[in-house]
């Protein structure tokens, strides 16, 4: 194993949590049972790393095997602190009929993607794997004309076949056009655009965009939504406020969802509207729009917004500016004077 | 004939003094007697004639004319009783009809009252029944009739909206439609569509999975005028998807010896691996469901090391079995036939 591979493994080991190590190595399957048993998981991470390095040398594993392990860490291990932000993209304008775009098979996609990407950039290492939840994970290590693929800074792409959604992390602006091209050609769509949704957790942005969380709709007989237990301060207040509280809760859940919500960390509103404040004449008189950015940040943004609505801090019905976050599956909005709602402008110029 | 019998004056036997005088005269003068006799006779004749004239007004002729009149009147009297009977009967019938109609109107009125109270009851289920003034048997019947009309109206409404559960939102400006999916008598997922009605009908929110082509179905439908042109195809797609998904789940649960090599989100492609019992050979079976509104495959393909196996009669039969029966049931049959492990 050469130095770069060793460094890759060391970096990987730093990121894996000790308690997940055994299962991860098991899934990897490159260690024999005996080797796995020989690892003492009570030792320090550094010691474990050394032991693992030795075993990998023994098995003559190469960089491609290590990248396998990395992919398992990224995709299979839940709540793995990811490398960074995940960004959502959407494929646009399917070619042909709906059936054509939906009939892209896995093997077809794999071959086409690899060949198209290799055509665009010669030195690239692509690894594709499909998961049980129909997600196709792609790991791309980019090189250029002179250097070999850099495995220390791979890009991960997750695509759900038969949906137009693609999630990407660690992609530079130089690499973006190449990836976009390869994706468009291998999925039979005609274009790809930024979906204006980003977050630290892939599962969260995926659930939001693909509507895989519990949504609440108005029904004839609304089931009582379990609210977190609050200490009953005053029975009289409780009795009086029971109905308005239930209505607020219903409105909040209809806007944001019921149960556990996808964890978003921020929402950004870029305002390009004219300044409006009658007490400040100088600003109001200006012709150009007043550029301003409003950012909401939280460990679980949707949960906090829902709580604002259900507790009465934000009035119900929830303003479309906030309810657009789950409705449109976006957390970046540009608001201009032309439309009342958020427009979907792109954050960075596309090719 | 006038019989000159006992002329008072001409009595030889006895006689009064007048007679005596007369008799004396007659004895004395026979001409005188004759004159008296003739005058007396003519006086009698005139009397008789006068009597006969009176009898002609109250006599035979008059009797005849009376009979004539009677006969005439009897003829005309014979028609009138039957006509009267007819008219009487008709009047009777009309009266009974009127009474019937009156009774029906009364029943209908009380039915409506009962129905109104029933409808109110359904909305606020705490209210108690109102008392009926009539006797219990009548009111029970009325209650049943009211319930019957209520259920009929409900069925009719259900037919109009095509069996979808729809409610109005935002004071009539919006709708929320709920589409249920079911397979094999088991209810599966519920999908919802929230729609705006003004200014145009459009979908504002939904929880339909992204691989169901909601947008293109909406574009192809006539939802501005008939919302069922959107809901019916959508329900077809969703139910077929739910059925295929359920079949895959059952294959995984019930047929552990069959390995699922590949599947996809829309469950429109399934690749299974069978093991043939005797030779322990593997057969790869691909099922393609290109018609997304159906839950049966449109193409079945077998691949095996033994090139001849897919063409053998048993496997050709298996192929058509897989095309016609849901996959989990087909596998059961194939196992029974001993074609697969």
UniProtKB/TrEMBL annotation, chain A:
Task: Provide GO CC annotations from the record.
Answer: chromosome, centromeric region; nucleoplasm
GO aspect biological process, one term: chromosome segregation
The answer to whether keyword Nucleus applies is yes
Statement: the UniProt record of this protein carries the keyword rRNA-binding: no
Q: Which domain of life is it from?
A: Eukaryota
What are the entry keywords?
A: Centromere, Chromosome, Nucleus
Give the transmembrane region(s).
none
Query: Which InterPro entries does the protein's record reference?
Result: CENP-NAC/CAD_complex (IPR052011), Chl4/mis15/CENP-N (IPR007902)
Main localization category: nucleus
Enumerate the subcellular locations listed in this protein's record, separating them with semicolons. Chromosome, Centromere; Nucleus
The entry's family comment says: Belongs to the CENP-N/CHL4 family.
Which protein is depicted?
Centromere protein N
């Amino acid at each position: 194993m050469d130095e770069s591979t060793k460094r890759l493994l060391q970096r990987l080991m730093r990121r894996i949590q000790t308690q997940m190590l055994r299962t991860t190595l098991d899934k990897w399957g490159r260690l024999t049972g005996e080797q796995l048993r020989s690892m003492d998981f009570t030792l320090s991470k550094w010691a474990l790393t050394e032991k693992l390095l030795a075993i990998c040398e023994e098995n003559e594993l190469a960089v491609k095997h290590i990248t396998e392990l990395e992919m398992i860490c990224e995709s299979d291990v839940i709540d793995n602190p990811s490398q960074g932000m995940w960004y959502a993209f959407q494929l646009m304008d399917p070619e042909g009929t709906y059936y054509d775009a939906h009939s892209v098979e896995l093997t077809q996609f794999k071959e086409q993607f690899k060949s198209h990407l290799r055509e665009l950039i010669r030195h690239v290492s692509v690894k594709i794997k499909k998961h049980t939840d129909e997600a196709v994970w792609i790991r791309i290590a980019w090189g250029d004309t002179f250097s070999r693929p850099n495995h220390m800074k791979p890009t991960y792409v997750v695509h759900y076949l038969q949906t137009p959604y693609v999630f990407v992390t660690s992609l530079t602006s130089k690499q973006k056009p190449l990836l976009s091209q390869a994706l468009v050609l291998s999925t039979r769509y005609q274009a790809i655009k930024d979906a204006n949704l980003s977050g630290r957790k892939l599962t969260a942005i995926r659930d939001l965009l693909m509507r895989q969380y519990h949504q609440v709709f108005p029904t004839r007989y609304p089931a009582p939504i379990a609210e977190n237990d609050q200490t009953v301060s005053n029975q009289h207040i409780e009795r009086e406020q029971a109905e308005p509280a239930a209505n607020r809760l219903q409105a909040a859940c209809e806007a944001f969802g019921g149960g556990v919500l996808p964890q978003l960390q921020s929402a950004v509103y870029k305002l390009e509207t004219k300044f409006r404040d009658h007490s400040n004449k100088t600003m109001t008189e200006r012709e150009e729009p007043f550029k301003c950015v409003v950012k909401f940040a939280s460990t679980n943004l949707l949960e906090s917004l829902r709580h604002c609505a259900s507790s009465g801090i934000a009035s119900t019905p929830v303003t479309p500016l906030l309810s657009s976050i789950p409705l449109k599956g976006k957390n970046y909005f540009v608001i201009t004077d032309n439309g009342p709602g958020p427009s979907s402008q792109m954050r960075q110029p596309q090719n | 004939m006038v019989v000159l019998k006992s002329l008072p004056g001409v009595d030889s036997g006895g006689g009064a003094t007048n007679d005596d005088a007369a008799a004396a005269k007659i004895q004395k003068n026979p001409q005188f007697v004759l004159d008296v006799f003739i005058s007396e006779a003519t006086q009698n004749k005139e009397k008789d004639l006068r009597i006969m004239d009176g009898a002609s007004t109250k006599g035979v002729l008059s009797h005849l004319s009376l009979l004539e009149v009677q006969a005439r009147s009897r003829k005309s009297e014979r028609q009138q009783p039957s006509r009267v009977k007819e008219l009487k009967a008709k009047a009777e019938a009309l009266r009974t009809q009127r009474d019937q109609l009156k009774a029906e109107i009364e029943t209908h009125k009380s039915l409506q009252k009962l129905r109104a109270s029933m409808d109110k009851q359904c909305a606020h289920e705490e209210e108690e029944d109102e008392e009926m003034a009539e006797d219990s048997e009548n009111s029970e019947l009325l209650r049943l009739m009211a319930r019957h009309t209520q259920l009929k109206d409900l069925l009719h409404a259900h037919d109009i909206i095509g069996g979808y559960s729809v409610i109005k939102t935002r004071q009539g400006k919006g709708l929320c439609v709920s589409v249920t999916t079911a397979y094999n008598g088991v209810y599966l997922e519920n999908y919802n569509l929230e729609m705006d009605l003004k200014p145009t009908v459009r979908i504002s929110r939904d929880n339909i999975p992204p691989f169901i082509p909601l947008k293109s179905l909406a574009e192809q439908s006539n939802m501005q005028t008939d919302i069922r042109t959107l809901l019916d195809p959508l329900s077809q797609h969703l139910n077929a998807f739910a059925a295929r998904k359920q079949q895959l789940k059952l294959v995984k649960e019930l047929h552990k010896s069959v390995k699922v090599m590949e599947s996809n989100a829309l469950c429109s492609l399934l690749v299974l691996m069978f093991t043939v019992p005797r030779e322990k050979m593997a057969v790869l079976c691909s099922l393609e469901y290109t018609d997304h509104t159906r839950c049966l495959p449109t193409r079945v393909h077998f691949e095996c090391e033994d090139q001849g196996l897919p063409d053998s009669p048993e496997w050709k039969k298996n192929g058509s079995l897989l095309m016609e029966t849901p996959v989990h049931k087909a596998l059961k049959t194939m196992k029974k036939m001993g074609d697969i492990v």
